[in-house]
Amino acid sequence: MPASSAEPATARIAVDLLGGDHAPAVVVDGALRAFQDDPSLHLLLVGTHEAADAVLAAVSPAERNRVGMLPMPAVEIHPDDSARAALRAVADGLADAVMSAGNTAAVVISAARALGRWPAVRRPALTAVLPTAAGRLVLLDVGSAVDPDEGTLAMHARLGAAYASVVHRVAEPRVGLLTIGTERGKGDRLRRALPPLLAAADLPGGARYVGLVEGNDVVTGNAADVVVTDGFTGNVLLKGLETAYARLGPPGGNAAVPPRAALLLGVAGTVVVCHGSASETDLAAGIALAAELHRRGAVDAIAELIPHNEVSHE
Question: For the structural domain made of 119-257, what CATH number should be given?
Answer without folding.
Answer: 3.40.718.10
